[in-house]
């Protein structure tokens, strides 16, 4: 027994010595920041990737036709359009597209401007690109009536892409969209609204989220509906809420009066952490209004080339990564801490393809070095024309993050 006790005492002494040494030499625990972020300054971050309209005209979709009447998903292959976008989506947490138009049944018939009915294989490509969600509250939402809304809703749902903006049922129309970041950073609420339906009147007002202009008898109720959805999203655990607005004044390099008044009114409610827009088919400024960041116009993500004088801005866009920082599940701790933006072209070397301008991609220039540099500078000047702080709003060079 004594021998056993002596051994035990000796063993305990060694163990105690080792514990003391380990405590002394063990480094401090590494702080883990949840979220796919290059420099999360808080416990958690959500990096939201957004860009402008998926605007498919006939001359665009013809380039990607295999057998347009096929009903098995092989009629078109739009995947090449999104190839260069994938690394930017992968460098974000939640990626949201903007579906400008309804989709046709598999195999057609299709229709282009002014009343769209585009190939449904666009949904397939959006899924393959990695979008988590899509908004579709736009001026073209009612182009094909309730049937068009149903087709788009069902196709996105089947692809596992979350959505909001236009609705099959009234029950769906009042549900807030809440997206849990797949990297664990937090939950995002997403609300939409469009100023116009091109003069069309749906069978039910709830079919499409609206933001009718000041003076319209529905204006106040539209604002309130958006706020109610934002509040409902927070009750369901959303740490931050983004608002996507869709305008109809096209080809402007500055925010129009509706965009400014509507965005400011929404910001004044305190319900939204960021507001961003599409619909103008052009890049527009970024503004900090009081404590709310507003990205007025993201232009087009994917579109046909316009050769109409004055409409060349249609051929460019902006993709942005809006980063929120805070503590998951702790209201009031969240803020926008950076907005990374990359100017984009709708072509690369004469082929339709989303292309980051200024060579920020291994595949090189979009048009040619001189044109790329000119358009990059033009969009840069527009982005900062309303005083955005370049310590927060930064041109996004993905290649720098990978060095």
General description of the model:
The chain is globular and about 50 Å long. It has 403 residues and is of the alpha/beta class. 28% of the residues lie in helices and 23% in strands. The protein has one domain (44-401): Metallo-dependent phosphatases (Purple Acid Phosphatase, chain A, domain 2). A hairpin with an 8-residue loop joins strand 12 (316-326) and strand 13 (335-348).
How do the SSEs run, as a string of H and E?
HEHHHEHEHEHEEHEHEEEEEEEHEH
Share in helix: 25-40%
> Distance between termini?
64 Å
Beta-strand content? 15-25%
Task: Give the CATH topology.
Answer: Purple Acid Phosphatase, chain A, domain 2
Query: What overall form do the CA principal axes indicate?
Result: globular
How many strands in all? 15
For the record, what CATH class applies? Alpha Beta
Spatial extent as radius of gyration: 24 Å
Roughly what is the average pLDDT, rounded to an integer?
A: 92
Largest sheet: 9 strands, mixed
pLDDT below 50 for ≥5 consecutive residues: which ranges? 1-21
- Domain count: 1
Per CATH, the superfamily is Metallo-dependent phosphatases
| Secondary structural class | alpha/beta
Continuous helix count: 11
What is the CATH architecture descriptor? 4-Layer Sandwich
